[in-house]
Amino acid sequence: MKRYEPFLALVLAGGLIAAAIAAPWLRFVLTIALAKGIAVMGILLLLRAGQVSFGHALYIGFGAYVVAFFAPVAGDGVLIIAASAAGAGLLGLVVGLFVTRYRQIFFGMLNLAMCMVFYSLLEKLYHITHGTDGIRVEIMPIAGQVLDRVSYEWTVFGIAMGLAFVVGFIIRLYLASPMGEALAGIKTRETRLEFMGVPARGILLAAYVASAMLGGIGGALIAMTSRHVTPLLSYWTASGELVFIAILGGPGGVLGPFLGAATYELVRVYAAASFADAWQMILGLVLLLVILFAPGGLWGLASRLVGERRR
């Protein structure tokens, strides 16, 4: 664990808040980036065990549809975010009991298969989900407060920022705990863990459920921000986005997902505005440069620069 990580987290948070104040339209982009950063922290947990999920958009889509269905009933954003996390955790437990029996490419592809089944259900059950038309999410009270549009957007931005700090702190403690160390042991010494009496599958299942809950929170925040939910949130390309961000940010620390998500969203927005037909190529080039010159991702690059400055 890097001692300067909390300091860098404050600097990054200050930068995001300053950017949202200076350019109000960026508030939407940065809230989405924070939501995706929270979801990518779930990918980070699985990467610690050497497993890559190509289907975690399943939990983003699930969390988003919980918001779409229950916003008119529950009527409070805080309750709905909690319900999204709990529901995604239960779904993750059911799916995880099956997929954690497998490793490597089988683990990744089974997650992808589950995600695509969910996507197909969302698309086909038109009378419930409105198919590809999606469901509009109205502005909802938060903590009992009725808000206008601008106040609502700032509040969701603040909630996303607060959750990023809380979840990042918890995941940091988790990775430093014996369970986190055992998670790392699954990557290289799973058989030895079993010989020592450590249930590797149980450790991975716990991490999987936690990652599903993070996906649910991320999905809820995306739905509350974009205020429109469609099946595309759980399409396989959305899962690929999460893996892309995880690689871009780097798996070495809890700040990596947020660095990766902010960079991804900003590059995508500016590239799409400047080169509408080539923004995917620009994103690919950015990832290629990071892989070639910063194998540890943006977090690895930042750690190296700060470490050299402290010598």
UniProtKB/TrEMBL annotation:
Keywords: Cell membrane, Membrane, Transmembrane, Transmembrane helix. InterPro entries: ABC_transp_permease, LivM-like. The chain crosses the membrane at residues 32-50, 57-74, 80-98, 154-177, 198-222, 242-267, 279-302. It is a multi-pass membrane protein. Its main location: membrane. The keyword Transmembrane applies. It is found in: Cell membrane. It holds the Pfam family BPD_transp_2. This is Branched-chain amino acid ABC transporter permease. It comes from Roseomonas fluvialis. The lineage of its organism: Bacteria, Pseudomonadati, Pseudomonadota, Alphaproteobacteria, Acetobacterales.
